[in-house]
């Protein structure tokens, strides 16, 4: 999970808010690989994504989200959990790219209990003292139980959509704070979630009874845990614990420490590393192709 130590690590890389711009990285994300055509001979033109701003009911109110899906056909559903700065344009771009691979993607606003998205337009706004202070109480509400409840509501909504193929398993991806949310999601609806990818997720292993590693046995998903090298340096035992619990649960889990720092997969993060981000993206697509 992003915290003061993460901010310090980004600063160690020589970045500051004046120097850091995202235009190049955002352009790189938008330059997607060719679309994977859906079955049945549908053309690429028909896969052009539709983006809808929606709200869906939860036990705690109304969640705002962005639903991006192909124009025709039905596809496996994927839930995208943003990082600590929340749902914003960079995640819409990721969802659009994933949609072009043949998935129906919902980008959720985890902070919906307190504010509508975007809470921040770009990551650098969260990095300010005011930005981190703003999200502190919002993050307190994001308990494992709350996320699991939200996941059930999200899946219930997705399964009513014509563009979602309910006969195929669903997936979930999460970044930073959203990394552990992928495990909570898989544990909340094990009959639906078959693939989960955590990118530099924080808090995957802890002493909490609801720690994600302890919940793996309650899931039926295959996993990708893409770990940042500086997160691994801070907690080198976490990857071993994830391996052990995945084996005990008899589930498939690809666990790798990447040669990149926390936040490297998100294009508006100062740690963004295009080469390693593309490699992690490719491993996620492989997981989805094998399981969904």
From TrEMBL:
Domain (Dienelactone hydrolase): residue spans on this chain: 63-291
One function term, GO molecular function aspect: hydrolase activity
Q: Which SUPFAM superfamilies match?
A: alpha/beta-Hydrolases
Question: Highest taxon of the source?
Answer: Bacteria
What are the entry keywords?
Hydrolase
Family annotation (Gene3D superfamilies): alpha/beta hydrolase
Is GTP-binding one of the keywords UniProt gives this record? no
Q: What name does UniProt use for this protein?
A: Dienelactone hydrolase family protein
Q: Please name the source species.
A: Altericroceibacterium spongiae
Kindly list the organism's lineage: Bacteria, Pseudomonadati, Pseudomonadota, Alphaproteobacteria, Sphingomonadales
């Amino acid at each position: 999970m992003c915290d003061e130590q993460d901010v310090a690590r980004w600063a160690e890389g020589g970045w500051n808010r004046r120097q850091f711009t995202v235009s190049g990285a955002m352009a790189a994300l938008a330059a997607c690989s060719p679309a994977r055509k859906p079955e049945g001979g549908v053309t690429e033109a028909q896969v052009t994504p539709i983006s809808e701003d929606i709200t869906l009911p939860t036990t705690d109110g109304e969640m705002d989200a962005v639903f991006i899906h192909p124009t025709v056909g039905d596809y496996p559903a994927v839930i995208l959990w943003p990082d600590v700065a929340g749902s914003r344009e960079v995640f819409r771009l990721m969802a659009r790219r994933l949609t072009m691979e043949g998935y129906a993607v919902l980008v959720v606003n985890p902070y919906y209990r307190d504010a509508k998205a975007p809470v921040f337009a770009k990551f650098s706004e969260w990095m300010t003292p005011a930005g981190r202070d703003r999200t502190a109480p919002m993050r307190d509400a994001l308990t494992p139980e709350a996320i699991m409840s939200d996941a059930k509501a999200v899946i219930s909504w997705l399964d009513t959509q014509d563009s979602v193929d309910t006969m195929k398993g669903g997936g979930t991806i999460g970044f930073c704070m959203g990394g552990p949310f992928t495990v909570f999601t898989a544990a909340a609806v094990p009959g639906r979630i078959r693939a989960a990818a955590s990118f530099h997720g924080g808090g995957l292993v802890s002493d909490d009874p609801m720690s994600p590693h302890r919940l793996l046995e309650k899931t039926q998903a295959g996993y990708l845990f893409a770990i940042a090298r500086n997160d691994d340096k801070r907690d080198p035992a976490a990857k071993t614990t994830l391996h052990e619990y995945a084996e005990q649960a008899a589930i498939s889990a690809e666990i790798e420490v990447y040669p990149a720092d926390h936040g490297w997969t998100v294009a508006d993060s100062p740690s963004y590393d295009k080469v390693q981000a593309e490699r992690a993206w490719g491993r996620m697509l492989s997981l989805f192709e094998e399981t969904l």
